[in-house]
Amino acid sequence: MADFESREREFATLERGDARLNAMRDAIHEADQCRDLHWQFWFRYDYLEESIFCGDRYYALIIFPELLSLYDNNPTLRDDSGCTHSLLICFKWIVEAAPEFPQIPKEQIDAYFREFKKRLRQQECSLSIYYMKRSLFYMHVDPDIAAMCFYRFLEEPLDEISDGKALYYDQQVLFYLTVGEEEKALKAAEPIFNGTYKSSSLPQATYHDFIRYYMTHGEHEKALHYAKLTVQRVDGDPYYHDVIGTLMTLYARYDRLRAIELLSRNWQDFLDSKNPWLRMQFASGAAFLMDHLCLEPELMSELRLPVSMWKASPDEIRHSFHAVAKDLAAKFDARNGTDDYMQLYLSPFGKE
After folding, report:
1. Which of 97, 123, 149 is the last residue of a domain?
2. What is the tens place of the pLDDT at every residue in 20-32?
3. Sign of the CA dihedral 190, 199, 168, 126?
4. Measured between alpha carbons, how far is 132 from 146 in angstroms, rounded to an integer?
5. Using a CB cutoff of 8 Å and minimum separation of 24, what contacts does 291-297 make?
6. Which of 52, 173, 177, 214 could bridge across to 223 with cysteines, CB 3.0–4.6 Å?
7. What is the pLDDT of residue 207?
């Protein structure tokens, strides 16, 4: 009989990303072969969680329907409070991840949200996390719906399904900056910046919110201040390719050697990434940087190319990044019914 408990403990000894995902995929297959319902569920949960937090999220969207079907078709799992709680956590991750893939229609994302809301109510959970994630998605779809969801989010109590106090305040920062209320955003950021509330993605995600805000409002010194606080926290982590893309854009103007270092260190992870949202933002920053480097060929010698691209010319590289960024921005906007991402791609510093 397979020792699935030992197998699960071994996951933590493996490198994050593909190594763990491959081991988890093998474990899922073995649990399926043994028809061990408990481990069929929990190995899929492990696999989904790893995909969510290693950055790609692609595999999470594939495995989630399997996890949901297992749970819905087996009373043993439905009667287990741990399985029920974990399924709701997975649903929370999925409604955040699904918008990162433009091939998933808005109607399907809305269907995910409706189902998530229904299941939260069935378990008598707060709707705080539902309104929080829906507000995040609709910021680039319909600002009025985003605002309605945000204020409902503030009214709902936090519970065990919620993301916690740190992300509760981070969501406030992002919303207030989106609507131009800088003072409210700074106030909301205080408990994050002073360490009262912590999360694995903070404060770097909050710093990023302020970098983008100050870049587009012409306050570049403030943007550079937050960039300095952020860069070492995100460099080399595929989960933060959106932040790295922003940093490359900013440093393309103010510190090109730093921008080149970021591109060189993170390029291969970009090529390996399956997450359109992260690829779009990384490519946009890299394209902006390459626009500047093609005008300063003496700096090109500092750029360390991945092995697969060492024969490419600077202009070919430039066009490649522009093609990815433009194509994905157009796809996201077509799905969302706006031109937000194309405008961000065309004018990363706003209207100057």
Report:
1. 123
2. 999 999 999 999 9
3. negative
4. 9
5. 291/252, 291/318, 292/252, 292/253, 292/256, 293/256, 293/260, 293/318, 294/318, 296/256
6. 214
7. 98
pTM over 0.90: yes
Express each pLDDT in 93-152 by its tens digit: 999 999 999 999 999 999 999 999 999 999 999 999 999 999 999 999 999 999 999 999
What is the spatial distance between Cα 86 and Cα 94, in angstroms, rounded to a whole number? Answer: 12
Q: Which of 1, 68, 81, 12 is nearest to 41 (CA)?
A: 68
Burial of 195 (0-12, 13-18, 19+ CB in 10 A): exposed
What are the two backbone dihedrals, phi and then psi, of residue 195, each rounded to the nearest 5 degrees?
Answer: 85, 5
Domain stops at, among 90, 123, 156: 123
Residue 265 lies in a domain: yes
How many domains are contained in the chain?
A: 2
**pLDDT for 295:** 83
Does any domain span residue 25?
A: yes
Q: Is residue 317 part of a domain?
A: yes
Q: What are 267-295's pLDDT values in tens digits? A: 999 999 999 999 999 999 999 999 999 88
Q: What distance in Å separates the CA atoms of residue 286 and residue 282, rounded to the nearest whole number?
A: 6
Tell me if 71 is assigned to some domain. Answer: yes
Burial 291-317 (b: 16+ CB within 10 A, else e): eebeeeeebeeebeeeeeeeeeeeeeb
User: Phi and psi dihedrals of 87, rounded to 5?
Assistant: -65, -40
Question: Which residues have CB under 8 Å from 239's CB, separation 6+?
Answer: 53, 54, 55, 201
